[in-house]
Prior knowledge:
By secondary structure, the chain is an alpha+beta fold. Helix content is 25%, strand content 22%.
Amino acid sequence: MKEVKITSSYRVAKDITDLDKLDRALLLEAKEAAKHAYAPYSKFYVGAALRFSDGQIIQGNNQENAAYPVTMCAERIAFFTASANYPNKIIESVAITVSTTDMKINSPVPPCGSCRQVIYEKEYRQERPIKIILQGDKGDIYLIDSVKDILPLLFDASYLT
Ligand code: THU
């Protein structure tokens, strides 16, 4: 039997000063977006900010519901808002941040599987990778060149014949 190894990598920046101007600004937008998260149940405030190739930025944040599974993640709100309103624009990058009232989050929190799948759908549609920038309240920042790097052996429209 043959074994197949899937490898990927991402970069780690020590703090915001290691980022270029555009990435830094996007991360600050994500932190702003998290301020409007509606998360009374989890108290886990997620902010997402994505930048189109023309420089426009769209924000999203998690929106919870007393019927817990109805909750929607910050990333999907940002991506669906982008696709609903600007279907033909190219998304270059997305910054995602997380904070909670209980403690300081000192390391980045990666997007859930469903959000990864939604981010990939947009990559597939626009035929261009989307850079992902992750940070907690403070500390290390992860830079991921494409969601493919964190979604190995993914499913996409090419399997639908
Ligand atoms: N959440 C996100 O917004 N994005 C993710 O990728 C993972 C989880 C939200 C959903 C819920 O409001 C809270 O975080 C706790 O799961």
